[in-house]
């Protein structure tokens, strides 16, 4: 098989792609998919992504942790949001977490409808993810969650990191994967510095999540690849 | 006014932007907006963009030239398609052309619904266009026509050229304008070479339009800015 890699720059464009034979990698590096990766790596039994804040509530009183973020902040009354520091071994080991976020869970729900498989990507598990994708006889769609359906730099940079890694193992690349790889090449020596160019950098600064951002830009501190099985994200066993 | 510049990477995302106070620059550099620029610069009285090939026919027998392109080729029975070499002084001087193209006219029709003003951009009129945009007290949306609603490199590079030019005259830039400018900086020394990376380069080669491509990548051989007035593109008088 002559494998294809494509980058979908925002969830609003996913209808353009035939993903029935593709592994879709959902990317929302600041912060949903980084926290999911870290949580699964730290022994969370499962993470259940739900679309609406209200949907989380229907899981109350079942012993689950409830995580809800909107516009970058923890929703009042929930256990936590999507800061990776909430997904430590002590907090999530053995637990199931029900999670809703502004962009990440929306992208997940769009992808699951048609994809062959849905996995989670972040800088934290870059190498493990790429090794897995290389070994499968499937196309890959890198789905950037973006910000409210708009293009964003951080998710595109991660897509570019994956493209760079897979360049010699795949045969076909679309224009957005070429662009993503070139942008990553510009940014890779100092990802944090590059992201200061982002239109979101003011928003990030206002949220006071600099530690989270620094954490999410670390490469390969996790080995796990979260995979969607039914309605749950669990650790992929390869 | 603190002016804003945004890049809409494909027409499928235009609903995300509030363009009521924006000048929208429609970009389809290979080849529609280059040919439109060249035709207007060469004295065409007007170019009427229509959505469907069939719509062109309703203008037959009115003394108009009919131009129709689909998937990069002239539609059989039409005077010409969107090769810039069809838009010379000899062929279009004093004439009105009715034009439909795969991506460019679609983008135009989407933009006209809500924009403050719609103008046409191409490498051929880059400097004139940028001088005009600097002098107006309006926001700017650079609308890349892309390829069948997907991101493409050539239109994004042109958007980046405009962003580079306007960088010091505007205050707010979205993430896609940052990305476009950085990609243009990588490509500008040899645009043609950079575009060989494109997934469309095979398609372009098959169409046997290398001369067209080289022509469309020339900077500043035209002074005119085509502007949409009612249903017609005419030369903007400033």
TrEMBL record, chains A, B:
Record keyword Magnesium present: yes
InterPro entries: ComB-like, ComB-like_sf
Keywords from the UniProt entry: Hydrolase, Magnesium
MF-aspect GO terms: 2-phosphosulfolactate phosphatase activity; magnesium ion binding; sulfopyruvate decarboxylase activity
Reactions catalysed according to its record: (2R)-O-phospho-3-sulfolactate + H2O = (2R)-3-sulfolactate + phosphate
Domain of life assignment: Bacteria
Top-level EC class as recorded in UniProt: hydrolase
Known cofactor(s): Mg(2+)
Keyword Hydrolase set for record: yes
EC number: 3.1.3.71
Classification via PANTHER family: 2-PHOSPHOSULFOLACTATE PHOSPHATASE-RELATED
Entry similarity comment: Belongs to the ComB family.
Protein name: Probable 2-phosphosulfolactate phosphatase
